[in-house]
Design brief:
The chain is mostly helical. The chain has one domain. It is built from eight helices and two strands. Strands 1-2 form a two-stranded antiparallel ribbon. Helix 1 crosses helix 2 and helix 5 packs parallel to helix 8.
Length: 260
Amino acid sequence: MMQLDFGFGAVEGELWRLVFVMTRIGAALLAAPFFGAGAVPMQLRVAMSAAISVLVCGWIPVQMPPALFTLAGVMAIGGEVVVGLALGFVLQLSFAAPIIAAEQIGGAMGMSMASTADPISGAHSPALGQYFTVLLTVVYLGLGAHLTWLRLVVDSYTALPPGKAWLTPDQIELILGFASQMFVAAIAIALPVTLVLLLVQFASGVLSRSAPALNLFALGLPAGVLAGIAALIVAAPLAAEQMADLSAEAVGNVAQVIGE
C-alpha cells in the first residue's frame, strides 16, 4: 500500500519542541511579578511565551525527551516547571519587601485599616503598599530590569539544560536565603519613616502626661498621619534609590540561581 508523506513529520517534531520550551518560560512568566499580574490576560502570557520560545529554539540547541508522554518525559516537564517557577518566585521575594515595609509604616501611622485590592497579586494590601509597589514597578521597568530578567530566563537553558534541570539543594538553600534579604530590605525601606513616627508618638505621650485634659486619640492620630505623609515626601528620593537597589538585587538573585 502506498503511504503519502507530505513532509509534516519534522514540523510536528518542532511543534512539540516549541511546546516543551514554552513550559519553563510560561511558568516563569506566571510566577513573576508584573508579567503574572491578574490584569495581564492569559492569552497575552501564552503569546509572549510562544514568541520567546521561538527565539530560544533558534538560538539554543534544546534537546527534548524522545517521548513526552512517558515517565521520563513527565519528569522532564516537571523539572522545567520547577525551574520556571523558581526564577519567577525569586522576583516575588523582592517585590514583597515594600509590602512588608508598608505594613509597618501603616501600623505606625494608624492607616493599617486602609487596604485595597492589589492588581498584581489579587490580594488585599495596605494603601501604602500600593504606593511602594507602583514605585518599585516604575523603577524596575525604567531600569530595564525586566529585559535583563528575560535574558536570564533564556540563558537558563544553557546553565540548566532541559531534562536535567532539577534544582540542587544548594540552589534551594540559596532561594530560601533570599527571604532574609527581603526582610532586611523591608526594614531599610520602613526605617526612616518609622523613626519619625516614633518621635511623634513619644511627643504625643509626653503631652498626654503633661496635659491629661487633652484627648490623645484626637491629637495623636492626625499628628501621626501628617507626620507620616511628610516623612514619606521627604524620604521619596531615598525610597527611589532603595527601589533601584532592590531591582538590581532581584535580577542578581536570579543570576545566582542559574549560576551566572
